[in-house]
């Protein structure tokens, strides 16, 4: 827990949802049951006057998330790609969070460029436009390099964004701790580890030098991918809070009318965006982890252009094989093998019944096949998956968080292009090809060669390592005192006071009304 002051942040979150009118919108979108609606309104309504007003010109949900800050905006960006989960109306409302947020002034942007690059903007660029896109963390300006007259995009971090994100993430840490303490059944989801992982990702996104490096590595991996291109990084005009890259012209991926007007095949584009993601994740183990419509364009020649490389995902070879086997099993309807893979990888406790788990997976997978894609309720499917994982004691795999989240986002992008897309049919060629290369005689020989290299490198040190492990086993470290009871008491008192204040305010308001 990062401090009790963050309880105030959580209270203002609920209050903001009430004040902006977003509470009902969110509850309706997720088809919240009556009990949850009652609790949400009872806790949020007394503090309504404490909520942020936001921009009244925006729809309620967008207004609330924008007022709450960048971390909430990131969450809204993900939901904007899932009309099958939150409905078409809310998805359209949230889509403006991707690259159409209120910008900061061009003067502030120029001051940041000068501070980072050490020269006046007029000496570096012959022209520097007003913001052309503004997102949660940074905004983009079109400029022309004075020396070469090359058109470029200049990305500049928002002023004070580091402090703002720190405030949001700190409140998330408190929320995660409260979930762990007051909902023991949710501990298997590792909420604290999830927030720690999210925190690490955000810290990387706030240093544009790391984003430039990620873009360079991603470009090297994908340079031969047909129908895919990346803008080149201009290293000499990039720094910690400023990144300059080649300008990318094309139709926005979220604008179907513009894509149709340019003569592109949206069905083919939907298939390709999904297959490219799977190819990058399985083949390279390094993928773009923020592939919403605001970060994608379609070039005049039909290529998909990706940009904004602040969030990149990495998974090791073993995890890739597990993930591919799970997908392959679902594609082949081999639920027994999918269940076995979960057990072999340690995703499900060994004391559970593999056949029973396979039957539960069949209940999840079968509705997907033999049905029109637009008839599948992803919200209900995810709800049932959660019930299954809870029943079998599965824990959240923090190393797969970005992969799972990006799969949801990319599927949403693909469905926005082609609502009839069959995700499993499109994924099958990529997954099958990876399985054939990574699980078989050739893969076994590669694994043996890698193992031999490791043994040769560490062979002389093995006796010492074994001896150190045995000494540690015979002399265990004294256990660290458990402060969970104190945390529980403290949070219970603070929450009791908060609810008490809310109740008192309600009584005062009622009394004044009467």
TrEMBL record:
Gene from which the chain derives: ubiB
Family: Belongs to the protein kinase superfamily. ADCK protein kinase family.
UniProt-listed NCBIfam families: UbiB (TIGR01982)
Protein name, entry field: Protein kinase UbiB
Pathway connected to this protein: Cofactor biosynthesis; ubiquinone biosynthesis [regulation]
EC number: 2.7.-.-
Pfam family, one: ABC1
Domain ABC1 atypical kinase-like, residue spans: 97-342
């Amino acid at each position: 827990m990062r401090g009790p002051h963050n309880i105030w942040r959580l209270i203002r979150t609920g209050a903001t949802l009430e004040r902006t009118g977003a509470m009902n919108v969110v509850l309706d979108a997720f088809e919240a049951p009556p009990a949850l609606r009652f609790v949400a309104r009872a806790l949020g309504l007394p503090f309504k006057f404490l909520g942020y007003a936001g921009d009244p010109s925006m729809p309620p949900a967008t207004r609330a998330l924008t007022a709450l800050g960048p971390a909430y905006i990131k969450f809204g960006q993900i939901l904007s790609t899932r009309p099958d989960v939150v409905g078409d109306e809310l998805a359209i409302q949230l889509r403006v969070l991707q690259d159409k947020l209120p910008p900061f002034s061009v003067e502030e942007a120029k001051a940041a460029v000068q501070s980072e690059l050490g020269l006046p903007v007029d000496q570096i660029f012959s022209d520097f436009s007003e913001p052309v896109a503004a997102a949660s963390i940074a905004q983009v300006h079109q400029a022309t390099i004075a020396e070469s007259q090359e058109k470029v995009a200049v990305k500049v971090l928002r002023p004070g964004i580091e402090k703002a994100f720190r405030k949001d993430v700190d409140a998330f840490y408190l929320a995660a701790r409260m979930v762990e303490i007051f909902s023991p059944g949710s501990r298997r989801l590792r909420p604290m580890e999830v927030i720690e992982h999210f925190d690490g990702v955000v810290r990387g996104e706030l240093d544009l030098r790391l984003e430039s490096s990620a873009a360079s590595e991603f470009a090297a991996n994908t340079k031969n991918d047909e129908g895919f291109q990346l803008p080149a990084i201009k290293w000499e005009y990039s720094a910690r809070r400023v990144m300059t890259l080649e300008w990318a012209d094309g139709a926005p991926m979220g604008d179907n009318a513009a894509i149709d007007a340019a003569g592109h095949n949206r069905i083919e584009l939907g298939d390709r965006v999904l297959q490219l993601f799977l190819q990058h994740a399985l083949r390279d183990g390094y993928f773009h982890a923020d592939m919403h419509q605001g970060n994608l364009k379609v070039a005049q020649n039909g290529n998909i252009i990706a940009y904004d490389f602040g969030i990149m995902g990495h998974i090791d070879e073993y995890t890739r094989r597990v993930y591919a086997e799970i997908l392959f099993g679902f594609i082949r309807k081999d639920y027994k093998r999918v269940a076995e893979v979960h057990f072999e990888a340690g995703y499900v406790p060994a004391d559970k019944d593999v056949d029973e788990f396979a039957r539960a997976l069949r209940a999840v997978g079968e509705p997907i096949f033999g049905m029109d894609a637009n008839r599948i309720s992803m919200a209900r499917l995810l709800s049932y998956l959660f019930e299954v994982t809870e029943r079998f004691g599965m824990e959240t795999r923090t190393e797969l968080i970005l992969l799972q989240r990006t799969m949801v986002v990319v599927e949403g992008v693909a469905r926005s292009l082609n609502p009839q897309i069959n995700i499993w049919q499109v994924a099958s060629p990529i997954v099958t090809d990876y399985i054939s290369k990574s699980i078989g005689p050739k893969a076994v020989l590669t694994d043996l060669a890698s193992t031999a290299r490791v043994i040769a490198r560490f062979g002389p040190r093995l006796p010492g390592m074994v001896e150190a492990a045995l000494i540690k086993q015979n002399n265990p470290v004294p256990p660290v005192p458990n402060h969970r009871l104190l945390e529980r008491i403290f949070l219970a008192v603070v929450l009791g006071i908060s609810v008490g204040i809310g109740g008192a305010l309600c009584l005062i308001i009622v009394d004044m009304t009467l």
